[in-house]
Write a structure and sequence with these properties.
Number of strands: 3
Number of helices: 8
Structural class: alpha/beta
Largest sheet: 3 strands, parallel
Distance between the termini: 12 Å
Order of helices and strands: EHHEHEHHHHH
Helix content: 25-40%
Shape: globular
Strand order of the largest sheet: 1-2-3
């Protein structure tokens, strides 16, 4: 079960949500647009997701504005060790949460196909989940990392929510936060 971290303040905060790649961004957009998250698009700064990976980029482009309420930064990334440190001006005023999708977001595709157990038992040490997914989905029109593929595969947002739930139950490990913590059904 997920560690309980109180994220209820996200209902009222402005949120800067930064996604590592196109797959993460597409998945987050599906969840937001189908009201599956604990916040709405209206909470997002500029009503959109961003792809800034460095704290300095977020500071320069987004934090120097005047906001009338609290801001939280949500990072969706597969890297546990990626450095992200706000400057002293912001580090105590703004909460930063990193939601991990380790080892890669493509694990959700493996779960959806029922191939996750086979991957983790047989291939984990020899190839990334994205490489294994390429073998499974080799006859598809779009790349598995493309927006079109992800949107088509997770056209049913409840199916996406279910794969995230399964990921949380089976593969969360010691990571305190993952996408499941952002789902309304997790509250």
């Amino acid at each position: 079960m997920s560690q309980r971290i109180n994220l209820e303040h996200l209902y009222d905060d402005y949120i800067i949500c930064s996604c590592e790649g196109a797959s993460e961004e597409t998945i987050m957009n599906i969840l937001i647009d189908n009201n599956k998250l604990i916040f709405s698009r209206e909470n997002l700064v500029d009503n959109k997701l961003f792809r800034f990976r460095k704290a300095s980029e977020i500071e320069a482009k987004l934090l120097r504005r005047g906001y009338g309420k609290s801001i939280s930064i949500l990072r969706v990334s597969d890297s546990k060790n990626e450095k992200f440190k706000l400057s002293r001006l912001y580090e105590e005023r703004i909460k930063v949460y990193t939601f991990l999708t380790r080892p890669e977001i493509e694990v959700l595709l493996l779960i959806g196909e029922g191939k996750d157990t086979k991957y983790f038992n047989s291939y984990k040490s020899s190839m990334k989940p994205s490489e294994y997914c390429k073998q499974i989905f080799h006859n598809r029109k779009y790349s598995i990392k493309s927006k079109e593929f992800i949107e088509n595969y997770f056209a049913d947002p409840d199916f996406l929510v279910e794969t995230i739930r399964v990921y949380n139950e089976k593969y969360r490990g010691r990571d305190p936060l993952n996408l499941f913590n952002l789902l309304q059904c997790a509250l």
